[in-house]
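re the bet — no i am not wrong, look at it urself. input seq straight from the record:
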Amino acid sequence: MKKFFSAYFAVPLIWRILAGFVIGIVLGITASHLEKETLDAVLPYIEPFGTLLISMLKMIVFPIIFFSLIIGSASLPLKKSGKLGGAVLLWYFATSVIAALFGIATAYFLNPEMSGAAEAAASRQSELAAIKAGPSGGGLDAFLVNLFANPFQALAEGRFLAIVIFSILFGLAARVLLDSVKTPDGTKTHIEAFLDICRAAASISFKLIDWVMEYFPFGVFALSFVNFARNGFLLFGPYLRIVLCVIACVSGMIFIVYPLALFVVCRQNPYKVLLRLREPILTAFVTRSSAAALPVSLRTAEKLGISSSLSSFSLPLGCTINMDGVCVHLPVFVILASNIFGVPFTAAQMLILLVSVVFASVGAGGVPGGSVFLLFMVLENAGFDPAQTAMIVALALGINPILDMFETACNVTGDNVCTYIIAERNGLIGRDPPKETP
C-alpha cells in the first residue's frame, strides 16, 4: 500500500487531475445510457464527492480574498495603486467588449439553429419557473447598489463584490495610516503588526489550498461523471449546433484573442503562458465556478512570480466583474432566437446587444449557471417578447451545465491573462519564477 501511494503522489498533480476528468467523462457518458431509475440510484453515491470539492474551495476562497486584498492594497503607494487599479479595470472592460463583439460576429457567422425547439423548451418549464423566481443579475444598477455592504454579512453570504470593495478600502486606509504614522525608534506600528497578521493568515490559507489540491482528482472525477451522466447525451441531440457554436466562440477567445493580446503586449510565446495557467483554467472548466477557481488562480500567480499586490487585487475583482465567457455565450442565444422567431437583426439591435451583454456580464457573479439569469434581460433588450424570451431561456437550461464549463474556463482565462499582462507591463513579475513540474 505504501508503494502504491508513493507511486500515486509521484505523478504530477495536473496529470492526476486530467486522468480523473477523462475517466469521469467516459464513465459518465456510459452511465447516461442507463435507465433513469438506475442512474438516479447511482448518482447520490458519487455526487457528494464533487460537491465536497466545490465546498472546500468556497470555504477557503473568502478568507483568501479578504486577507490578500488587504495586503495587496496596503502594499503599494496610493499613486501607483490607483494607476494599477485603473489599468485592471480598463483591461477587463476592453476584453469584455472584445468578447461581446467576437461572440456576436461568430454567432452571426455560424448562424445557430435548432430543430424541435418548442418541444425541448416545453420539457424545461418547471425549471424556468424556478429561475424566474430566483435572483437576477441586474446589470449595472445591481453592480452599483451592491458595492457597499456590511462586510461581515457579505462574508457570511458570500457576496464577492462587497467583500472586494471593503477589503480594498480597508487596505488603502491602512496604507494612508502607514504613510502618516512614524515611530521615533523605528519599531513597527500597530498597523504594521496587524498587516503581519493578515500576511500570516494569507500564508496559512495558501497552505490549505495545497491540501485541497490533493483532493482535486477525486472531486474532478465526481463532478465530470455526474455532469456527463446527466447531460452528456444532449451533445448528440438537437442541441449540437448550439453547443458547437458556443465552443467555437469560447475557443476563439482562449486560443486566438488572448494569445494575440499576450504576444502584442508582452512579446512572449502566448501558448507557453497559457500552459502555465492550465490549473486554474481546468479547475474553472470542471467546477463551473470562477469563485471556486480563484484560490488556484492566486496560487498560480504566486508560482509565476506575480506580485501579490497586483494579483490579490485583480484576480478577486476579475472573478466578480470580468465575465468574458458570458459575453461570448449570450449572443449565441440571441441569434438563435432571431432564427427561431424570424426576427431580423439590424445594426442598431446589434449595438444594443453589445451594450446589454457587457453590462449584464458584470452581474453574472462567480457561481455556476449565473449567466442563465441574465438571458432574460438581454433577450428583452433585444426586442423579444416575454413568451419568446421564456422559450429561449428554457432551451438554454437544457444544455447550460455543459456550456457553463466552457464559459467559466473563458472567464478565468481572461482574469489570469489580464493579470499577467499588467504584471509584465509594470515590472511586477519575477524574471525567473519558480519552475513548475511538467
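see?? The chain is about 80% helix and 0% strand. told u. also The longest helix spans residues 190-231. so pay up
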